[in-house]
Predict the 3D structure of the following.
Amino acid sequence: MEQPKNNIKLVSKKNSRVILPNILTLIGVCIGLTSIKFSFDGNFQLAIIAVIVAGVIDGLDGRIARLIKGTSKVGKELDSLTDVISFGVAPAFIMYFWTLSELGRLGWLISLIYVICVALRLARFNVNSEAEPSWKDNFFEGIPSPAGGVLVLMPLIYSFSEIQFFIPNYKIIVSILFIVISILLISKLPTYSLKKIVVPRSATIFLLLIVVLYFGLLLIYTFNTLIISGVLYLLMIPISALHYFKISKNHNNVENIDHHEDVL
Protein backbone atom coordinates (compact mmCIF):
# COMPACT_ATOMS: atom_id res chain seq x y z
CA MET A 1 0.00 0.00 0.00
CA GLU A 2 1.41 3.35 -1.02
CA GLN A 3 2.23 5.61 1.90
CA PRO A 4 0.77 9.11 1.72
CA LYS A 5 3.37 11.77 1.13
CA ASN A 6 3.97 14.30 3.82
CA ASN A 7 3.63 17.68 2.11
CA ILE A 8 3.97 19.67 5.32
CA LYS A 9 7.31 21.49 5.36
CA LEU A 10 8.60 23.98 7.89
CA VAL A 11 10.11 27.11 6.32
CA SER A 12 10.05 25.73 2.81
CA LYS A 13 8.81 28.47 0.51
CA LYS A 14 10.08 32.00 0.13
CA ASN A 15 6.84 33.41 1.56
CA SER A 16 7.30 31.31 4.70
CA ARG A 17 10.96 32.14 5.20
CA VAL A 18 10.35 35.90 5.35
CA ILE A 19 7.95 35.55 8.28
CA LEU A 20 10.52 34.99 11.05
CA PRO A 21 12.76 38.04 10.33
CA ASN A 22 9.70 40.25 9.81
CA ILE A 23 8.26 39.10 13.13
CA LEU A 24 11.54 40.03 14.83
CA THR A 25 11.44 43.42 13.12
CA LEU A 26 7.90 44.07 14.36
CA ILE A 27 8.92 43.02 17.86
CA GLY A 28 11.66 45.63 17.60
CA VAL A 29 9.02 48.25 16.73
CA CYS A 30 7.00 47.30 19.81
CA ILE A 31 10.06 47.50 22.06
CA GLY A 32 11.06 50.87 20.59
CA LEU A 33 7.58 52.27 21.18
CA THR A 34 7.57 50.80 24.68
CA SER A 35 10.75 52.74 25.47
CA ILE A 36 8.80 55.94 24.79
CA LYS A 37 6.14 54.79 27.26
CA PHE A 38 8.82 54.09 29.88
CA SER A 39 10.31 57.57 29.42
CA PHE A 40 6.88 59.17 29.63
CA ASP A 41 6.42 57.40 32.98
CA GLY A 42 9.84 58.66 34.13
CA ASN A 43 11.40 55.18 34.08
CA PHE A 44 14.44 56.17 32.03
CA GLN A 45 16.55 53.14 32.95
CA LEU A 46 14.03 50.76 31.37
CA ALA A 47 13.71 53.14 28.43
CA ILE A 48 17.46 52.84 27.77
CA ILE A 49 17.38 49.06 28.10
CA ALA A 50 14.43 48.87 25.67
CA VAL A 51 16.39 50.81 23.02
CA ILE A 52 19.41 48.53 23.53
CA VAL A 53 17.23 45.42 23.14
CA ALA A 54 15.72 46.92 19.99
CA GLY A 55 19.27 47.42 18.70
CA VAL A 56 20.14 43.77 19.35
CA ILE A 57 17.01 42.64 17.52
CA ASP A 58 17.84 44.99 14.65
CA GLY A 59 21.22 43.31 14.34
CA LEU A 60 19.69 39.84 14.37
CA ASP A 61 16.73 40.11 12.00
CA GLY A 62 18.80 40.94 8.93
CA ARG A 63 21.35 38.23 9.64
CA ILE A 64 18.63 35.65 10.22
CA ALA A 65 16.93 36.71 6.98
CA ARG A 66 20.16 36.22 5.03
CA LEU A 67 20.89 32.94 6.81
CA ILE A 68 17.55 31.33 5.93
CA LYS A 69 17.39 33.15 2.57
CA GLY A 70 14.30 35.05 3.68
CA THR A 71 15.22 38.54 2.54
CA SER A 72 12.52 40.57 0.80
CA LYS A 73 11.78 44.12 -0.32
CA VAL A 74 9.00 44.33 2.24
CA GLY A 75 11.39 43.28 4.99
CA LYS A 76 13.92 45.88 3.84
CA GLU A 77 11.40 48.71 3.95
CA LEU A 78 9.95 47.45 7.23
CA ASP A 79 13.41 47.40 8.77
CA SER A 80 13.99 51.02 7.80
CA LEU A 81 10.66 52.13 9.26
CA THR A 82 11.52 50.25 12.44
CA ASP A 83 14.87 52.01 12.67
CA VAL A 84 13.19 55.41 12.36
CA ILE A 85 10.94 54.55 15.30
CA SER A 86 13.39 52.68 17.54
CA PHE A 87 16.51 54.78 16.94
CA GLY A 88 15.03 58.07 15.79
CA VAL A 89 11.68 58.81 17.41
CA ALA A 90 12.25 56.82 20.62
CA PRO A 91 15.63 58.35 21.62
CA ALA A 92 14.33 61.82 20.71
CA PHE A 93 11.31 61.43 22.97
CA ILE A 94 13.39 59.89 25.77
CA MET A 95 15.85 62.77 25.81
CA TYR A 96 13.07 65.34 25.35
CA PHE A 97 11.22 64.05 28.40
CA TRP A 98 14.49 63.87 30.34
CA THR A 99 16.01 67.28 29.69
CA LEU A 100 15.30 68.86 26.28
CA SER A 101 11.78 69.85 27.35
CA GLU A 102 13.42 72.37 29.70
CA LEU A 103 14.59 74.28 26.61
CA GLY A 104 11.02 74.77 25.43
CA ARG A 105 10.52 75.12 21.67
CA LEU A 106 14.25 74.93 21.02
CA GLY A 107 14.41 71.51 22.67
CA TRP A 108 11.56 70.26 20.50
CA LEU A 109 13.24 71.67 17.37
CA ILE A 110 16.47 69.83 18.23
CA SER A 111 14.51 66.60 18.62
CA LEU A 112 12.80 67.12 15.26
CA ILE A 113 16.12 67.78 13.50
CA TYR A 114 17.56 64.54 14.86
CA VAL A 115 14.55 62.43 13.75
CA ILE A 116 14.64 64.00 10.28
CA CYS A 117 18.35 63.21 9.96
CA VAL A 118 17.69 59.58 10.93
CA ALA A 119 14.99 59.34 8.24
CA LEU A 120 17.28 60.93 5.61
CA ARG A 121 20.14 58.62 6.56
CA LEU A 122 17.94 55.53 6.17
CA ALA A 123 16.52 56.75 2.85
CA ARG A 124 20.05 57.20 1.50
CA PHE A 125 21.04 53.77 2.79
CA ASN A 126 18.14 52.11 0.96
CA VAL A 127 19.11 53.82 -2.28
CA ASN A 128 22.82 52.96 -1.98
CA SER A 129 22.11 49.33 -1.05
CA GLU A 130 20.89 48.72 -4.61
CA ALA A 131 24.36 49.47 -6.03
CA GLU A 132 26.74 46.78 -7.26
CA PRO A 133 28.70 44.94 -4.51
CA SER A 134 32.20 46.28 -3.88
CA TRP A 135 34.78 46.72 -1.14
CA LYS A 136 32.89 49.84 -0.06
CA ASP A 137 30.20 47.57 1.41
CA ASN A 138 32.52 47.14 4.43
CA PHE A 139 31.80 50.77 5.33
CA PHE A 140 28.72 52.86 6.01
CA GLU A 141 28.26 56.43 4.82
CA GLY A 142 27.87 58.22 8.12
CA ILE A 143 27.12 56.45 11.36
CA PRO A 144 24.28 53.89 11.27
CA SER A 145 20.99 54.81 12.90
CA PRO A 146 21.22 52.23 15.76
CA ALA A 147 24.60 53.67 16.76
CA GLY A 148 23.20 57.20 16.54
CA GLY A 149 20.23 56.22 18.70
CA VAL A 150 22.49 54.89 21.44
CA LEU A 151 25.00 57.75 21.20
CA VAL A 152 22.39 60.45 21.80
CA LEU A 153 21.40 58.57 24.95
CA MET A 154 24.97 58.73 26.33
CA PRO A 155 24.36 61.70 28.70
CA LEU A 156 21.39 59.87 30.20
CA ILE A 157 23.36 56.64 30.45
CA TYR A 158 26.24 58.57 32.03
CA SER A 159 23.89 59.91 34.71
CA PHE A 160 23.09 56.32 35.76
CA SER A 161 26.63 54.96 35.53
CA GLU A 162 29.25 54.75 38.24
CA ILE A 163 31.84 56.33 35.94
CA GLN A 164 31.21 59.98 36.77
CA PHE A 165 34.24 62.25 36.78
CA PHE A 166 32.12 65.42 36.80
CA ILE A 167 28.50 66.55 36.66
CA PRO A 168 27.99 68.34 33.32
CA ASN A 169 25.33 70.83 32.31
CA TYR A 170 23.08 68.23 30.70
CA LYS A 171 20.94 70.72 28.77
CA ILE A 172 23.98 72.06 26.91
CA ILE A 173 25.68 68.67 26.49
CA VAL A 174 22.51 66.99 25.17
CA SER A 175 21.80 69.82 22.73
CA ILE A 176 25.33 69.79 21.31
CA LEU A 177 25.39 65.99 21.13
CA PHE A 178 22.08 65.89 19.26
CA ILE A 179 23.38 68.32 16.64
CA VAL A 180 26.72 66.51 16.26
CA ILE A 181 25.11 63.07 15.93
CA SER A 182 22.55 64.46 13.46
CA ILE A 183 25.40 65.75 11.27
CA LEU A 184 27.27 62.43 11.52
CA LEU A 185 24.14 60.53 10.49
CA ILE A 186 23.71 62.40 7.19
CA SER A 187 27.43 62.90 6.56
CA LYS A 188 29.44 60.76 4.14
CA LEU A 189 32.09 60.01 6.74
CA PRO A 190 33.01 56.32 6.33
CA THR A 191 32.36 54.14 9.37
CA TYR A 192 32.89 50.42 9.79
CA SER A 193 30.11 48.04 8.83
CA LEU A 194 30.29 44.69 10.63
CA LYS A 195 27.86 42.99 8.24
CA LYS A 196 30.47 41.89 5.70
CA ILE A 197 33.25 40.86 8.09
CA VAL A 198 34.33 37.25 7.61
CA VAL A 199 35.67 35.60 10.75
CA PRO A 200 38.22 32.77 10.21
CA ARG A 201 37.08 29.45 11.61
CA SER A 202 40.15 29.29 13.85
CA ALA A 203 39.09 32.56 15.52
CA THR A 204 35.42 31.65 15.98
CA ILE A 205 35.86 30.30 19.51
CA PHE A 206 37.63 33.48 20.61
CA LEU A 207 34.93 35.64 19.03
CA LEU A 208 32.24 33.70 20.88
CA LEU A 209 34.16 34.14 24.12
CA ILE A 210 34.42 37.90 23.57
CA VAL A 211 30.69 38.17 22.74
CA VAL A 212 29.69 36.17 25.84
CA LEU A 213 32.04 38.24 28.00
CA TYR A 214 30.66 41.49 26.62
CA PHE A 215 27.04 40.53 27.19
CA GLY A 216 27.96 39.31 30.66
CA LEU A 217 29.42 42.72 31.47
CA LEU A 218 26.36 44.32 29.90
CA LEU A 219 24.09 42.38 32.23
CA ILE A 220 26.14 43.04 35.37
CA TYR A 221 27.48 46.55 34.72
CA THR A 222 24.90 47.75 32.19
CA PHE A 223 25.41 51.51 32.15
CA ASN A 224 29.17 51.42 32.75
CA THR A 225 29.58 49.01 29.82
CA LEU A 226 27.40 51.17 27.58
CA ILE A 227 29.42 54.30 28.39
CA ILE A 228 32.73 52.57 27.61
CA SER A 229 31.24 51.08 24.41
CA GLY A 230 30.02 54.51 23.29
CA VAL A 231 33.42 56.11 23.86
CA LEU A 232 35.19 53.28 22.00
CA TYR A 233 32.80 53.62 19.08
CA LEU A 234 33.42 57.36 18.84
CA LEU A 235 37.17 56.68 18.82
CA MET A 236 36.67 54.16 16.02
CA ILE A 237 35.06 56.73 13.71
CA PRO A 238 38.29 58.56 12.72
CA ILE A 239 40.11 55.21 12.53
CA SER A 240 37.52 53.79 10.14
CA ALA A 241 37.69 56.96 8.00
CA LEU A 242 41.48 56.74 7.73
CA HIS A 243 41.23 53.04 6.88
CA TYR A 244 38.65 53.77 4.17
CA PHE A 245 40.77 56.47 2.53
CA LYS A 246 43.83 54.21 2.63
CA ILE A 247 41.97 51.38 0.87
CA SER A 248 40.45 53.83 -1.59
CA LYS A 249 43.89 55.20 -2.44
CA ASN A 250 45.26 51.69 -3.03
CA HIS A 251 42.34 50.81 -5.30
CA ASN A 252 42.78 54.03 -7.29
CA ASN A 253 46.49 53.28 -7.75
CA VAL A 254 45.71 49.77 -9.00
CA GLU A 255 43.08 51.10 -11.42
CA ASN A 256 45.51 53.72 -12.74
CA ILE A 257 48.17 51.05 -13.32
CA ASP A 258 45.69 48.80 -15.13
CA HIS A 259 44.49 51.70 -17.26
CA HIS A 260 48.08 52.64 -18.13
CA GLU A 261 48.86 49.06 -19.15
CA ASP A 262 45.75 48.93 -21.32
CA VAL A 263 46.84 52.12 -23.08
CA LEU A 264 50.28 50.68 -23.74
In short: The longest helix spans residues 222-263. The chain has a mean pLDDT of 84. The longest strand covers residues 139-141. The beta strands are 139-141, 190-192.
